[in-house]
């Protein structure tokens, strides 16, 4: 087996953007990490201009979706099931939607005291909502960490149940 050279920035972005709705097959680490860099930079830049909590949540869900297929293919390249990223994405959506639609948070955002954080106010005035937000955040964070670690793993040269290796070719 011969290892192909690492994908460059432009090649990786073209490949990932063409396959944005393709959840089958495998993606190399270089394709995945270059794509994630672009998604994160664009996501950060757009979020700077969004002031509304609901619009911010909708953007976050769309932004996470842009990374979903590449992450699924990356996990499959290392032989792992894409179910990990789907569960993590669902947890992120639920967390974002709960926070953006929580009446406790929206009420407190309207009456925000610049010397006190929103979470501090929620914890004091709405402890049930705070516990839910905290637990959702913890579970989502752990699921993201698991997916992140699995995305770091290298693939095997041989084909797996998700297809042939995009990194190695037979001589």
UniProtKB/TrEMBL annotation:
Keywords: Membrane, Transmembrane, Transmembrane helix. It holds the Pfam family DUF805. The chain crosses the membrane at residues 32-50, 84-105, 130-153. GO terms for cellular component: plasma membrane. It comes from the Bacteria. PANTHER family: INNER MEMBRANE PROTEIN YHAH-RELATED, INNER MEMBRANE PROTEIN-RELATED-RELATED. This is DUF805 domain-containing protein. It comes from Xylanibacter ruminicola.
């Amino acid at each position: 087996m011969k290892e192909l050279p690492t994908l460059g920035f432009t090649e990786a972005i073209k490949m990932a953007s063409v396959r944005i709705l393709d959840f089958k097959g495998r993606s190399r680490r270089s394709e995945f990490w270059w794509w994630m860099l672009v998604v994160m930079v664009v996501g950060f830049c757009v979020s700077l201009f969004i002031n509304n909590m609901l619009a911010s949540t909708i953007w976050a869900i769309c932004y996470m979706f842009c990374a979903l297929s590449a992450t699924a293919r990356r996990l499959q390249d290392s032989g792992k099931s894409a179910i990990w990223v789907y569960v993590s994405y669902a947890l992120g959506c639920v967390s974002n939607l709960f926070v953006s639609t929580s009446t406790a948070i929206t009420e407190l955002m309207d009456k925000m005291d610049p010397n006190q954080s929103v979470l501090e106010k929620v914890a004091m005035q709405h402890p049930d909502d705070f516990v839910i937000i905290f637990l959702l955040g913890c579970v989502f964070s752990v699921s993201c960490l698991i997916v992140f670690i699995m995305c770091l793993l290298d693939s095997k040269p041989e084909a797996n149940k998700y297809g042939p290796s995009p990194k190695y070719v037979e001589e």
